[in-house]
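Trying the structure run again after the queue cleared.
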Amino acid sequence: MSLASLVRRGALAAGTIFAASVAMASGAGAQDLISFLWGGDDEWGGGRQTVRFSPQYKPGQLIVSFGDRRLYLVNSPGQAISYPIAVPREQSRWAGATIVSDKRVNPDWRPTPTMMAENPKLPSFVPGGHPQNPLGVRALYLGSSTYRIHGTDAPWTIGQAVSKGCIRMYNADVLDLYPRVPVGTRVTVTWQRFNTNALASYESAPREERVERRYYRSRSVVRRPASAVYE
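Done. Tokens:
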């Protein structure tokens, strides 16, 4: 190989590396901006964790903090498992004390009349187990209300204020929570924020959910299922 060819190849390689570096830096900056706008990353506490928690709550209680955008399951005095959640939109805010009144595996989904009036294009029924079921793979029903703690078909929305009143979780997280919470569990829903320190961290979403979430966040136009903002 001639000296001229080697020089050309070296210059091409150097240019490729430089371009890739610039692209990576630009991509990181764009991702930081997207994360800031969408929420749901470290600003909202990251993934599932074991944290120190207020000792005023007894083991077995659920505390949903819309302010933290976290759900806490107290598992021992002064300690809780913390899960990231999506919370209600401003016009759908609520708070109070209730209980888990029912639990369902792969729940069916039906939009309420209010939802249909707001978006007539919604499907009238989505069977349990369907990949675009807004309730995901598990649901915990709260008191006599229509509100639920449930999974999702839109994992990229975790950390956002998007729901009509329900508490939305990663499917992996609601699968973890579901067997820990019996019917009758006391649930406190509040806008109070809590001071917590992580004791251990876990991966909330499986790899496919994390990749899907990053993909949707990186697009200028976000394609979502028609029902994605309705639970």
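Residues 36 and 43 are 8 Å apart (CA to CA). Worth checking whether this holds up in the mutant runs.
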